[in-house]
Amino acid sequence: MLTNRQLLILQILIDEYIRNAEPLGSRSISKRQDITFSSATIRNELADLEDMGFIEKTHISSGRIPSEKGYRFYVDHLLAPVNVTNSDLQQIHSLFHDKMSELELLIEHSAKMLSEITKYTSIILGPEVYETKLKHLQIVPISIGTAVIILITDTGHVEKYTVDLPIDMDASDLERTVNILNDRLQGVPFSQLKSKLVEEVEGLLLTHLNNYEKILDFLVQLFQTEKSDKVYYGGKTNILNQPEFQDVEKVKALYNAIEQYDLVQQLLHQDDSTGIKVKIGAENLLKEMKSCSLITASYSIGGQHMGTLAILGPTRMEYPRVIGLLDLLSKDLTRVLTDRYYSK
Amino acid sequence: MLTNRQLLILQILIDEYIRNAEPLGSRSISKRQDITFSSATIRNELADLEDMGFIEKTHISSGRIPSEKGYRFYVDHLLAPVNVTNSDLQQIHSLFHDKMSELELLIEHSAKMLSEITKYTSIILGPEVYETKLKHLQIVPISIGTAVIILITDTGHVEKYTVDLPIDMDASDLERTVNILNDRLQGVPFSQLKSKLVEEVEGLLLTHLNNYEKILDFLVQLFQTEKSDKVYYGGKTNILNQPEFQDVEKVKALYNAIEQYDLVQQLLHQDDSTGIKVKIGAENLLKEMKSCSLITASYSIGGQHMGTLAILGPTRMEYPRVIGLLDLLSKDLTRVLTDRYYSK
DNA sequence: GTTAGCACTCGAGATGATTGAGTGCTAATT
DNA sequence: AATTAGCACTCAATCATCTCGAGTGCTAAC
After folding, report:
1. Which of the listed ranges A46-60, A256-270, A271-285 does the model predict with the highest average pLDDT?
2. Nearest-CB residue to A162 (from B101, B135, B162)
3. CB neighbourhood size of A160 (10 A)
4. d(CA B136, CA B15)
5. pLDDT digit string (tens) for A19-48?
6. How far apart are CA B298 and CA B313, in angstroms?
7. Where would I find the H helices in B32-154?
8. Alpha carbon of B207 to those of A47, A175, B203, B327: distances in Å?
């Protein structure tokens, strides 16, 4: 276990390194007012901390920087929760003041605002459509054989598919189908559309339509296509301000990684349990992110997980501040969205 | 005017510089087989070309590189049109083979493919909704006082607005309104929706609805909101491979500029006349793009301008190849879209 | 008009000295 | 036994110096 003095030194070292991005030596630590012992003592402690793997040297006679294990320890044990500053608080609340009617717009603005106040890159996984309920379905033929199918959810989200219609389906078939579907499927969560369709609607279609088989196949197909969540970014260029990303090759690798939506989705989805999650460096699975940390929080509507907020920064990130901000915003977002869309 | 020899030398210099990104000296030019005169002669010619402003030096004893005026001359007078290579041709055609039903998807894939085969960054201004015709309008209430309004165009595009409904509008009002609008406005181009509404529909609403004024106001408001085109990007990180963008500051400035959709739209919209347009360096108005060139082509449906294809690269760009590709793709795209959506 | 020749310039690299911030270790001090 | 002072040592960073080579412009000869 670490002694109090070691804890203090580790804390100072990480705080300072996060601030300045420069290796810290025993002498500069000893010069702080809250340090009462000499640089030689600190040297010994630093050597011990290094042996335990919490800090490392960049070269043999350099100062120390935190290791990933050091950051992990810092986040798990040393983090003094900081209050969100007043100006940050105002920024966040202003999001909700001018009540934005579009959910997507609200999310987009949240991403932008997060990146602006943190100076890091924000990533938000958009409202999951999976557990929202069908409000209305519409099929609009746009030319011979093709039509646009529109599904509208109770959160005002619109899903759109352009499809080829079964060739022998005429206008009246279409109308009857739409009516039946709207009648039977309204209020059904997207996740259950397919089973409801097979269980309840199949019979109705059978009695009302000629070639019900093709249409049913077609609808089953439609309802089981994976709906992937949208990914919103804010401040992608903020990465370029970090001293650890002055190398264009590193930037390229990271950008290429975070523009692959499926990868990002996987990354942020890892566990959608509530609470703040911090992934440091290599914990992130993507090798392009080994000098980055990712802090995530999730937001929900009426207890139902809806999406994920994330901040991507260097491992040398202002953990306390970002954690505080994400915690606040995720709770606010959850509250506002629940108010708006969960009103029974 | 330039002599034939000067033309030859300028052509060689620009071609080589585009290939290697390194200043070219008289000696290396004289070593080519197609050059029959000595380096001293070339030195004299280079000095003349420099006096005329077509080429410049990076420092006093360096080789020459093309100036913007040089590139301009090259593009306007020296460009030998090159044929699109077979493999590029296949790539482009494969876009259309697996017939994609979603127009947006086709555009998105086009952007990706363009960036992959050119190794530059592609920007596509996505189908303009302005001249497409209304196919169907739907209003779906999603909670008390709010509704989603959906407009579907004849190209299968869906526009969505979440709006606050006038408080005293009941379900039957809504239904009547929707019916009237669909009846009267189908087939009307978006650009004329507002005038048609005022001219033809106002009277009908008056006779069928109680509080028609509020609703009319509301619809006028809706129809006159600017519909800004979507911007699609491909290969944004390709910029980082260019030797002229090894400086992170430059990259940041450019990225910040091209992520401002309104700026980009303005930039690509500048003239939507047909044909290929080449904007070199400072011709681009944005100072962040002064070391870039932008080559644009437009695509249309049935003669109606729909959007713009663009390639963004360093001024040292492979003009002939990119021009050939854009020309081909824009024409193919126009043909395919016209076939698909202009069938009377 | 063309070319050979020459003095000159400048960037890019290599080399070496200097500095300063850091280390580990040992011996003295508390 | 813990702490500290002192010292030899290491290494990155910086700067001056040098060399090399690719380039130039200019002049005089072809």
Report:
1. A46-60
2. B101
3. 18
4. 53
5. 999 999 999 999 998 999 999 999 999 999
6. 18
7. 39-51, 68-73, 86-97, 103-118
8. 88, 28, 7, 53
CATH architecture of B134-223: 2-Layer Sandwich (3.30)
Q: Domain A134-224 has what CATH class?
A: alpha beta
Q: Nearest CA of chain B to the CA of A136: how many Å?
A: 7
Provide, as residue numbers in chain B, all residues whose Cβ is less than 8 Å from the Cβ of A136: 138, 140
A152 neighbourhood in chain B, CB within 8 Å: 140, 142, 148, 150
Report the alpha-carbon distance of residue B44 to residue B49 in Å, rounded: 9
| Protein-to-nucleotide distance from the CA of B48 to the C1' of C5, whole angstroms | 21
Structure tokens given for B278: 């080449």
Report the interhelical angle of B4-20 vs B39-51 (nearest 10°).
90
CATH architecture of structural domain A86-128+229-341: 2-Layer Sandwich (3.30)
Q: Which residue has the higher pLDDT, B161 or A317?
A: A317
- Same topology for domains B4-78 and B86-128+229-341, yes or no? no
CATH code for the part of the protein at A4-78: 1.10.10.10
| Cα B185 to Cα A150, B180, B226, B316, distances in angstroms | 20, 8, 18, 50
Q: Per residue in B314-343, pLDDT tens?
A: 999 999 999 999 999 999 999 999 988 876
Q: How far apart are the first and last CA of chain A?
A: 53
Mean pLDDT of chain B: 91
Q: Where are the domains of chain B?
A: 4-78, 86-128+229-341, 134-223
How many Å does it take to go from CA A30 to C1' C21? 14
What does the block give as tokens for B82?
């090159």
Identity of residue B13: L
Radius of gyration of chain B (CA): 26
